[in-house]
Amino acid sequence: MKIEGIPGPAGYFYYFTTKTRKGLYEALADEIISKLNSGRVLDIGTGSGNLPIEIAKRASNLEIIGIDLSKTLIKIARNMAKREGVGKSVRFEIGSAYDLKFEDSYFDMVISSMTIHHLKYPTKAFNEIYRVLKPNREAWIYDLIRDASLKEVKQTLREMNLPIFPSIILYRFFGLKYEEYSGEITEYLEESLFKEYKFEKKGCLMKIVLSKI
Question: Looking at the domain assignment, is residue 192 inside a domain?
Answer without folding.
Answer: yes
